Amino acid sequence: MTLRGLAQKMQMYMSLFGLPDEILTDNGTQYTGDAFKKFTVEWGIEHITSSPHYPKSNGCSERHIRHIKSTVKKTLKNGGNLQMALLQIRATPIDSKLPSPAELIFGRPITTLLPSRTDPGREEHRLQLEQRTADMKEHHDRNSHKELPPLHPGQHVTVLNEERGTWHPATVVEKSSEPRSYIVQTPNGNQIRCCRSHLRELFKPNMQSNTRRIHFAEPLQQAETHKGHNDSAEVISETAHETDMNCEKQNRIQQTCV
């Protein structure tokens, strides 16, 4: 599908269901072209793209796409009606406290081949949906990794090359308007947008040498050895002094006797 054809298809559905406040997409070329940007600006829709090469940032869409693909494969394999299968998906309640996606849009359940209730949608559905979303976010934040510190322009980092699984040096240019993303410049001058989890801070070592000399205290064993030698010398000196005094005393006694 061409860029112009994609914009026309979205305009057709929006004319039926109304304009959304924002559109969250990946970074496919069909969404980053000038035609799609012009369409979102003219229709007053905020366009947000997920982080490049980081499927977790677009996890909600990825999960629904996986569910739809699985349904399509099973339906075609069994020779079923694809449109009927999609109808059942849209009419199936999200959980025991939330109505179906179709009922959230139209405010009433849509008719299918299965029996369904006919009471209109209530305000509590919206509140329950918001509470469910908040609970899912809290569970994700509790089990996810610690929030990484922000980066600043001019900061040296390394960026992950998803295809090769290697890290390469780069410099932060600015923080992107997209969530958790930064614009970095590689050594060859290219500027790319990267998810924060694909950027690592690069700390440069301090090359200034310290010329001051540090005098360490003598080891304990060496100090004790020196102390032992000094003590032994003192004992020998005292013993020699006492011996000299005794000899002098004996000489005096002998002289007196003579």
UniProtKB/TrEMBL annotation:
* Superkingdom classification of source: Eukaryota
One Gene Ontology term of the biological-process aspect is: DNA integration
* Record-linked InterPro entries: Integrase_cat-core, Retrovirus_Pol_polyprotein, RNaseH-like_sf, RNaseH_sf
SUPFAM superfamilies per the UniProt record, alphabetical: Ribonuclease H-like
List, for all copies, the residue spans of the domain called Integrase catalytic.
1-117
Enumerate the residue ranges of region (Disordered): 239-258
Q: Which one of the record's GO molecular function terms can you name?
A: nucleic acid binding
Q: Where is the composition biased (Basic and acidic residues)?
A: 239-251
Question: Can you say what this protein is called?
Answer: Integrase catalytic domain-containing protein
